[in-house]
Design a protein that fits this description.
Order of helices and strands: HHHHHH
Number of helices: 6
Helix content: 55-70%
Shape: elongated
Number of domains: 1
Oligomer: single chain
Distance between the termini: 50 Å
């Protein structure tokens, strides 16, 4: 329970804070211009795609990071953030084929994979658990225990 909670919060904060800075301090359009459009202008990637992805990344990081911290819709948020990691990895390697992923990309990847690998039914400190796992138990009839006496016959 605690391993997934702590891992969720660490990776969630890493993405959330990056998204916060890119969204509210830099701005999504400036982020797109400075980190996507200008550096990749001479690559095969169309300009419209650079603008679209560069503008979307800060919002995906912000929302995905918050969702992972809260433990709500963790699987879709993790997949979206994993997509960001794949895109960022490809972008860095496109410009510099021997780019080192150890300081920025790899720690986020490892923590994100840990969140996905640790069984989610052990994560009782998440909104997913409260909304989805507990709800299923509320609507199921109680199980009979092995120690309960058998029903009496009507003979």
């Amino acid at each position: 329970m605690w391993a997934r909670f702590i891992t969720r919060w660490v990776v969630g904060l890493m993405f959330f804070m990056a998204g916060w800075m890119k969204t509210f301090q830099m701005g999504p359009l400036e982020h797109a211009r400075r980190l996507f459009v200008e550096p990749y202008a001479e690559t095969w990637i169309p300009e419209w795609l650079l603008w679209a992805s560069g503008t979307a990344v800060p919002i995906v990081e912000l929302v995905g990071g918050a969702l992972i911290c809260l433990g709500f819709l963790v699987l879709p948020a993790s997949v979206a953030l994993g997509g960001v990691l794949v895109m960022v990895t490809y972008g860095h390697l496109l410009l510099e084929p021997l780019f080192s992923t150890t300081s920025h990309i790899f720690p986020r990847l490892v923590l994100l994979v840990l969140v996905l690998v640790i069984p989610r039914d052990h994560d009782r400190l998440s909104l997913d658990h409260w909304f989805f796992f507990r709800r299923d138990r509320w609507f199921q009839p109680p199980r009979k225990s092995a120690t309960s006496p058998p029903p009496e016959s009507a003979e």
